[in-house]
Amino acid sequence: MSKSRLQEQILELETLIRARYPILYIVSWEERKVDRLMSHIASRRSKKVYTWSYTQGIQAIGAPPDPSKAKSSSTRDPAAALDHVLVSNESAIFLFKDFHPFLTKNNFAVIRKLREVSQAIKNSYKTLVIVSPVLELPVELEKDITVIPLELPGPEEFAELLERIIREVRDNPNVTVRVDESSREKVIKAAMGLTLSEAENVFAKTIVADGVLDSNDVSAIFAEKQQIIRKSGLLEYYDASEDFGEVGGLEALKDWLAKRARAFSDEAEQFGLPAPKGIMLLGVQGCGKSLCAKAAASYWKMPLLRFDIGKMFGSLVGSSEENMRRAIQVAESVAPAVLWVDEIDKAFAGVSGGGGSDAGTSSRVFGTFLTWLSEKQSPVFVLATANDISNLPAELLRKGRLDEIFFVDLPNDEERHEILRIHITKRKRDAAKFDLPRLVKAGHGFSGAELEQAVISGLYDAFYAGGELSTEGLMVALEETVPLSRTMQEDIDRLRAWAGTRARRATPVAEADMADESLKRRIEF
C-alpha cells in the first residue's frame, strides 16, 4: 500500500531534522497540524518540542496561554528567543510561530542572529522550525533556510476528521447522521481545499443548522469556499443555478459534458481515467457560451470560479505574474471546481507578437498559465470562452492543454424553436399559445441572446400597451432587431471558415442549419 500524503510529509520533515538541517520554514495556515507533526516526530526521535510566539515567548508545546507569564517573559523578544535556542543544551525542536514580520530587510539584527543560530546548531541536536502562512525570506538567509510548503489536507485527513465528528455526534438524539459510502465521498471531495479547521467548522455548522449530516451538506461546504474566493480578490464565485434545461440546442457539447460528470470521482480514478482538463468554447457572441459554463458547474455540482484576467494585471512590475500564481493557487485550493476564463482572446491579445508595450508582462503571465494547463494535477476544469480566433495564440490550442475546442454557431431552426420556448416559458407564459414556427423563421440569423432580448422587448411593449404578450408582438420585436450576423457577417464567415476544420461543432453536423448560405460548401466548377 502506498504511503498517504500525510505520512510522506512526516517522513520528509523527519528526514530533514535527522540530516541536521538547522532552520526549516514551513509555509502553512495550520499551526495545530504543524504542532501535531512536530510532536509526532519529536516522540519518535526522543526530543522535546518548544513553541515561541510574540505574545507568550518560549514555552513547552501544549502549554495553555498564561497572560501573567506573557508580560514578564524575557523570551518574547525575537533576539532573546534566538539566544535561548543558542544556549539550550536540550535535544529539542523549537517551533517559532508567525516569525515572518521579523524577517523583513529592516530587521538586520534578527537576520544576523538567525545566521549565527544556523551555524551554531548544525553541530547539535536542535532544530529551529518557523511556521507562518506568509513566506518572508531575506536574501541573507536564502542559503541557511529550507522552505517547505505544507500542502492542504488530503482525502485521508478529511475522512479521519469526518469519522471523528460522526463518532462524537452519533449518540446525540438531536442529530441524524446519514453518511453512506457514496455521500461520504461527496462530502470529502467537497471539503478538498479547506484547512482542517475550516472543514471542522463547516461540518459543525451543518449539524447545528438542521441537525443532519448527509450528502446534502455539500452546498454548505461550497458556501464556506466562497469565503476563500472573496478573500483572494482575483476570482469571482458564481452560485450557478442554471441547468442544461435552460440551454437550447448544443447537444454535442451537452453530451460531452454529461459523459464526464463522473470523471472526477474515485471510481473514475480507479478505472484509469484522468480528470478532464478543460475545453474552449469558440463562437459567435450571445450564443450561450457563458450559459454553458454556468450550467456545467451546476450539473457537476462544483463551484464555478470566474477568472477575470484583465483585473489581474497590476501596475507594479512582477505583480501580474504573482497575481496569476495566486489565482491558480486559490482555484486549486477549492478544487474540484470549474474555472471559467471568460473572453480569453481579449486577455491575451497580441501575446504571439512578443512583449509589446507592456514590457513582456502579458507573455510572462500567459506562459505561467500555459505551463499550469499542461502540468496541473488538481481537478480544476478550465472552461475558456473566446469570440475572435485571430487573437488566440497557437500555443493555447495545442492538444494536451485543453481536451477539446467546441465551435458554438448561431442556432439552427430546431435550436431557435427551443430557445424561444425556454424564454417564453421562463416569463410565465404558455409557449404552446404562440406560433413558434413563424417566430423561428423570423428569427433566422439571430443569436440566443438576441432571441431572449426580443422576448423581453415584446414584454415591455405589451406592458406599456396594457395588453398581453403575443406572437404579433414578438414578430414586431424581431423585425425591429438587426442581428449581429448581419452587421458582422464578414467576421462571422471568417470564424466559421476557421472552425470548419479546427474545432468540433457544439451542435451535431446533421442538425446544422444548412439553409444558411454562409454554411454551404463552396465548390468551383
Essential attributes:
525 residues, alpha/beta, Rossmann fold, Helicase, Ruva Protein, domain 3, 4 domains, 7-stranded mixed beta sheet, 6-stranded mixed beta sheet, 22 helices, 15 strands
Give a structural overview:
With 525 residues, this protein is α/β, with parallel strands linked by helices. It has 22 helices and 15 strands. The strands form three sheets. It has a seven-stranded mixed β-sheet, with helices on both faces. Strands 3-2-4-5-1-6 form a six-stranded mixed β-sheet, covered by helices on one side. A two-stranded parallel sheet has the order 7-8. Helix 6 packs across helix 7. It is elongated, with a radius of gyration of 29 Å. The C terminus is likely disordered.
Instruction: Compute the number of helices.
Output: 22
The total of beta strands comes to 15
Content of β-strand: 5-15%
The main sheet comes to: 7 strands, mixed
- Briefly, what CATH class of the largest domain? Alpha Beta
- Helicity level: 40-55%
Q: Return the CATH topology of the largest domain.
A: Rossmann fold
CATH architecture of the largest domain: 3-Layer(aba) Sandwich
Helix vs. strand class: alpha/beta
Query: Would you identify the CATH H-level superfamily of the largest domain?
Result: P-loop containing nucleotide triphosphate hydrolases
Beginning-to-end CA distance, first to last residue = 68 Å
Neighbour order of strands in the largest sheet: 9-11-12-13-10-14-15
Radius of gyration: 29 Å
Low-confidence stretches: 511-525
What sort of overall outline do the alpha carbons produce when their principal axes are compared?
elongated
Overall mean pLDDT: 83
Number of domains: 4
